Amino acid sequence: MGQEEKEDWIEDVFDSVRQTKNVEVPEGLFEKIEQEIDKTNVLPFNNFRTYLLAAGIAALLFANGSILYRLSEGARGNPSKELSESVYVQSMTLDFNFYDI
């Protein structure tokens, strides 16, 4: 598609959009929507949910902290142990022979 054809196509699209009619909102529609919103039952954010959310965040922070601690201990610890663990993990992930016959 050449540059001139592309510009003609764009102008055709714009012309078709310009020919469309504007949408008119019926009177009272916004009031009707507000009434429907007022009718809905909003569940309060009760204390149980607050404690559950706090416990979940605390558990995530604890898990992340313990993982970071173990990683930092491994970096300071015995390199041969770290290497052997790395080889073990790689062998687990690369060995897809689940059934020995």
Characterise the protein shown here.
It is built from 4 helices and no strands. With 101 residues, the protein is mostly helical. It has a domain at 46-92. The longest helix has 30 residues, at 47-76. It is flat and about 70 Å long.
Element layout with pairings:
Blueprint: H1 3-18, H2 29-39, H3 47-76, H4 79-94
Helix content: over 70%
- The termini sit apart by 60 Å
Judged by helices, strands and strand pairing, the structural class is mainly alpha
Number of helices: 4
Largest sheet: none
In round numbers, the mean pLDDT is 77
Low-confidence stretches: none
Q: Give the percentage of residues in beta strands.
A: under 5%
Q: Helix and strand string, N-terminal first?
A: HHHH
Q: In one word, what is the shape?
A: flat
Indicate the radius of gyration in whole angstroms. Answer: 32 Å
Number of strands: 0
List keywords for this structure.
101 residues, mainly alpha, 4 helices, 72% helix, 0% strand
Brief digest:
With 101 residues, the protein is mainly α. It contains 4 helices and no strands.
